[in-house]
Structure formats: structure tokens, C-alpha cells
């Protein structure tokens, strides 16, 4: 979705093809009806550009009747694409371990599954020894693990915390320590 990065959401909604919108909503919003939403957006554009978030929300609501989270997933996908959020997170996950001293801890709070998946994969990769110098893979270098995962599973907010702070309900905390 490099085309969406640095482009306003207006441009994405009004210029992306149906297949590009479908892919964006499916992959970044994890929206089950991404194809139908993309089709409806392209159809609505024949009447003129989609000018407001309200207009976009109405299109999504028309396709996803009864699914109150569909709008959130569509707007999430747009936000992630336009802001380049996953690319920024990936760059951070690569850079921070090199900045830590031994014993330094790297804690990441993610708020949706796409972010959490990237964090988990990075922490697993950093906490594994690679390349065993076997005779079957002689060219592979031995790279010792650089981090130790302190949380195998993400730490979730307690019911009491969710009660005090409803926005915390989707938060997942993962922590690793530099070796």
C-alpha cells in the first residue's frame, strides 16, 4: 500500500481501483465484506467524489447493515495505509533492539491484531538462535539470539482495568529483554 502512504484518505477513497480498495480493507482492516464495500465505494464515486467521512460511513453502513464494527475496520484500514503505520512499526521493531544495552527492556503495546502479529514475529525472530553451521547448510552463519521474550503470551488488561478504561480492552503488551 505504498501508494496510500503520504496520500490523503480522500485521494485513496476517490482514486484507488475497486481491487486496490478491496485489498486494503481486507488486509489492513480485516473486513470480511471488503469486496462489497469496495464495490459500493466505486459505485458511489460515479455520482461524484466522496467528500466527507460521513458519506463514507453511510456507504459502509449500507453494505454492512447491523455490523457496528465494520465502519471502524474500514477507517482503521485507511488510517493504517495513509499513515504508513505498519511500516513505521516494522522499522521501530528492527531499530530498538540495537539501541538497548544488555538488560534493557523493550515493551510494546499493540491495539489490533496486525500490530500484535508484527510484534510477536519480531520478538520470536530476535529471541531465536539462527544458523547452526550444519554440514547441510554450510553457508549459513551462526547468529545468536539478541533478545529474550519475557512474555510468551501477550498481557491483556484485567476486567477491572477494562472497567476503568474501556479503550484498554484491545491492548496487548509484549516485553523482551536485551541479552
UniProtKB/TrEMBL annotation:
Family: Belongs to the methyltransferase superfamily. RsmH family.
GO (cellular component) term, any one: cytoplasm
Top-level taxonomic group: Bacteria
Record has Cytoplasm as a keyword: no
InterPro entries: RsmH, SAM-dep_MeTrfase_MraW_recog, SAM-dependent_MTases_sf
Identification of the protein by name: 16S rRNA (Cytosine(1402)-N(4))-methyltransferase
A Pfam family of this chain: Methyltransf_5
Alphabetic keyword roster: Methyltransferase, rRNA processing, S-adenosyl-L-methionine, Transferase
Region described as Disordered: 131-179
Compositionally biased intervals (Basic and acidic residues): 138-151
Example GO biological process: rRNA base methylation
Gene Ontology MF annotations: rRNA (cytosine-N4-)-methyltransferase activity
Amino acid at each position: 500500500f505504498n501508494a496510500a502512504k503520504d496520500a490523503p484518505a480522500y485521494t485513496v477513497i476517490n482514486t484507488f481501483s475497486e481491487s486496490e480498495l478491496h485489498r486494503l480493507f481486507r488486509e489492513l482492516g480485516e473486513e470480511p465484506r471488503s469486496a462489497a464495500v469496495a464495490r459500493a465505494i466505486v459505485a458511489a464515486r460515479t455520482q461524484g467524489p466522496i467528500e466527507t467521512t460521513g458519506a463514507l460511513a453511510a456507504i459502509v453502513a449500507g453494505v454492512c447493515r447491523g455490523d457496528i464494527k465494520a465502519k471502524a475496520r474500514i477507517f482503521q484500514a485507511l488510517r493504517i495505509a495513509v499513515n504508513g503505520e505498519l511500516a513505521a512499526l516494522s522499522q521501530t521493531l528492527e531499530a530498538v533492539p540495537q539501541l538497548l544495552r544488555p538488560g534493557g527492556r523493550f515493551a510494546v503495546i499493540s491495539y489490533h491484531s496486525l500490530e500484535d502479529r508484527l510484534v510477536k514475529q519480531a520478538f520470536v525472530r530476535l529471541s531465536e538462535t539462527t544458523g547452526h553451521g550444519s554440514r547441510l547448510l554450510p553457508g549459513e552463519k551462526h547468529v545468536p539470539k539478541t533478545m529474550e521474550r519475557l512474555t510468551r503470551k501477550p498481557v491483556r488488561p484485567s476486567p477491572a482495568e477494562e472497567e476503568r478504561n474501556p479503550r484498554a480492552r484491545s491492548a496487548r503488551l509484549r516485553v523482551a529483554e536485551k541479552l
